[in-house]
Amino acid sequence: MTARVLIIAEHDGAKLNPSTAKCVTCARALPQPEIVIAVLASDGAAVSAQAAALTGVSRVLQVDHVANAHALAATWAPQVVELAKGFSHLFGPSTTFGKDLMPRVAALLGVPQVSDIMAVDGSQRFRRPIYAGNAILSVESPVDMAIVGTVRVASFEASPPGSSAPVEKISLAVELPNHTRFVSVSSGSSDRPDLQAASRVVSGGRALGSAQNFKLMFSLADKLGAAVGASRAAVDAGYAPNDLQVGQTGKIIAPELYFAIGISGAIQHLTGIKDARTIVAINKDAEAPIFEVADFGLVGDLFAIVPELEKLLGEQ
Amino acid sequence: MSRILVCIKRVVDYNVRVRIKPDGSGVVTDGVKMSINPFDEIALEEALRIRERGAAQEVIVTSIGPADCQQQLRTALAMGADRAILVQSDAPVEPLTAARTFLALARREEPMLVILGKQAIDDDNNQTGQMLAALWHRPQATFASRVELMDGKATVTREVDAGLETIEIDLPAVITTDLRLNEPRYVKLPEIMKARKKPFDTLSLQDLGVKSSPQLKVLRCEPPAQRQKGIMVKDAQELVAALKRKGLL
Q1: How many CB atoms are closer than 10 A to CB A175?
Q2: Domain(s) of CATH 3.40.50.620: residues in chain A
């Protein structure tokens, strides 16, 4: 049986978000997949070209509309429903974009959603984490209806460029609501490497003690070419902006190298980093749970260790 | 009368280390401490603050689940909700069924806002609010960290991957809450006594015309792969050397 997969592209109007290429890899794990990417934008030419280049993609549907300038779920969902005809699987990334949009699509279609797909075991069988990753659920969706899924991006590599799929421009005759309006977006850390795409991440926790001290994380990250993350405690305390939060309710990441500094390692944080290739923990409490999962642990005062690390890294 | 409907879920308490049943059918919930899903508690707190500011007159709290959900609804009444509706269902419901149930309640109660947590910390689905908004054909503002109401509209700041996004929505609407929206109040003992006298309705899914037909079949529940505990190094120098040996620096 062929899986006909429609993936809704995440993008900022100019660049395709790497989460989309990870959805493609997830879709490629389905039996005999035919993968189509939908690009909703005000002018989606550039993003569509990037989507069409991803290995495994057979077609790109470009839906240009002035109302698509921002990814408002209420505006996008009826369009996705219209595009969904004939598809067996509708995928989006399990990022705030996909989490917002895909359930609205599923409900309009009257079909279930599988959230946070971490593995594909067949055309209708998926694995997903529950209880902050403390249990893994295997579920089977019915064969007689489409299934909506959000893809846990930390579980899949990005599908590399290497294709040149045709791009088809589509205009939809769908009435769009005007009850939801975009006002603004502000980023707490726009000039930094992207936390979800970075191969190295330096994260700081409550032990940093202040927003001023948290800057230590940024200077260490600069030495490593790393993105900066934070524990929920550090964000709640105002040391770091919300878009840096790593964990169950923040970002789920899978860097090559992860530094947890002054982070005790609550289960909700660990679920956000369990796919990191190598975890380094620095904490003054030798009993901190972070050391149970760290590949390299160092017990001591972070305010002494971090500057020394920076110095050693600077000597390279 | 302008009302707010708050949907809460009874879940295994945040601090409990969950255990998986030996037969792999799910996690152990018997004899385990249960609480209001923390995100839903934030939803209730926000509704109470809106009412206390005078922007709403009544806060209705509802939950779908077994009779034991009464405990969580009573706690919600003690926090300050005006009345409670338990939609009793012994079998767990999927998010789409929950959304259909809340839709039926929304049509009955005609709230100006439905507020609920962005996700429940048991299933981590993050679906119900969006599904309700879709079925209700009303706006959704998910992952809210700030809510302002004015002239039949809400301006909501949302915690998104890029930072903070602000949208404006017409009411009625659905808002799902993120962690930093507020800090829920503690319940005082006299409030618990007072809450016993507040109106409490119990309905069934059938009463609301909702049929629960689970569509996702759970094949098994298993523990996650565990990471191996690594090695301890004694100082920064040893750490850098170890990372270099692994080719990571």
Answers
A1: 7
A2: 3-169
Query: Could you tell me which residues come within 8 angstroms of residue B125 by beta carbon, excluding any fewer than 6 positions away?
Result: A113, A115, B95, B119
Contact flag A312-B237 (C-beta cutoff 8 Å): yes
Asked whether A267 and A134 are in contact (CB, 8 A), the reply is: yes
Q: Where are the domains of chain B?
A: 3-245
CA distance B236 to chain A (A): 6
pLDDT in tens, B150-166: 999 999 999 999 899 99
CATH 3.40.50.1220 domain position(s) in chain A? 200-314
Question: What is the pTM assigned to this prediction?
Answer: 0.95
Q: Are A83 and A63 in contact (CB under 8 A)?
A: yes
Q: Which of B124, B160, B221 sits opposite A115 (nearest CB)?
A: B124
CATH architecture for the domain at B3-245: 3-Layer(aba) Sandwich (3.40)
Homologous superfamily (CATH) of A3-169 is HUPs (3.40.50.620)
Interface confidence (ipTM) of the complex: 0.96
The per-residue pLDDT for range B13-71, each reduced to its tens digit, is 999 999 999 999 999 999 999 999 999 999 999 999 999 999 999 999 999 999 999 99
Residue whose tokens read 């602000």: B166
Q: How far is A210 from chain B (nearest CA, A)?
A: 18
Domain A200-314: CATH architecture, name and number where available: 3-Layer(aba) Sandwich (3.40)
